[in-house]
Structure prediction request, 295 residues.
Amino acid sequence: MTRHSIHKLREWKAEGRRFAMVTAYDYPSARLVEQAGIPIILVGDSVGSVVLGYESTVPVTMDDILYHTRSVVRATSKSIIVADMPFMSYQWNADEAVRNAGRLLQEGGATAVKLEGGSHIIPLVSRMVQVGIPVMGHLGLTPQSVNQFGGHRVQGKTPAAAAKLLHDARALEEAGAFALVLETIPAELARMVSERVSVPTIGIGAGPHCDAQVQVFHDLLGFYDDQRKLRHAKRYAVVGEVIRNALADYAAEVEGGAFPTMEHAVSMSPGSLAELTAANPHLLDAVVLAEIGTI
Ligand code: KIV
Prediction:
């Protein structure tokens, strides 16, 4: 089974076919995403917040993304796997950036990489594309710059900021990016970008006019009941509650002696048990006798 091609995404846009992308970070989550028929999985650096317990994506490293990408790749055979380039894996120098992007494909098995940023990364995107590394762009609220933005703030609200974002989107397309994530920008701006580039725009908190949408696995599924108040996220399930209740039931049954029963156990054959107790009569205590009785 071969994976979907990144070129399909541009065709889907031309046909007006919308699609979903979702993050996944490990074998079970990626299996479920692919089984749900979602064609593109992002091994996002959001792993830092929703899996590793960091306050932002800034501490996430190349080793983290490589580790999680490998598990996602092992779990899937059809989905396009996009690996996020972590903070400082591509800002430091261009040679190192290309090498790190290459590692995500070569060692991680990713189909493509995603980089945050606009005009300042255009030469880097061109270079990656030239050496055969498919690149997804990411504009708007780019979480690796959260300290620079002073928090998770809507981007592209002023005419100047909106014009710059439109310019950056076109420049990324020209540099060869195959898709663009637009995060937390006004819906009107996302629509303008989507109408002006031929590659798909993938929105998160960018309104309904993008060609595709992306959401974070744990936000969609309601893993956390103290969920960050995210206006852009919709919960399609409350999986955290289901898991917590199931774990509490398990613990209560163990503590109360209701689990396990002989239904969940294996028994020695009557012959082996008889032979054992004949050779070791001191083992013939009440428990063993009772067991023999139940066999
Ligand atoms: O890391 C991530 O999950 C992302 C999405 C929010 C687009 O970059």
Q: What stands out?
A: The chain has a mean pLDDT of 93.
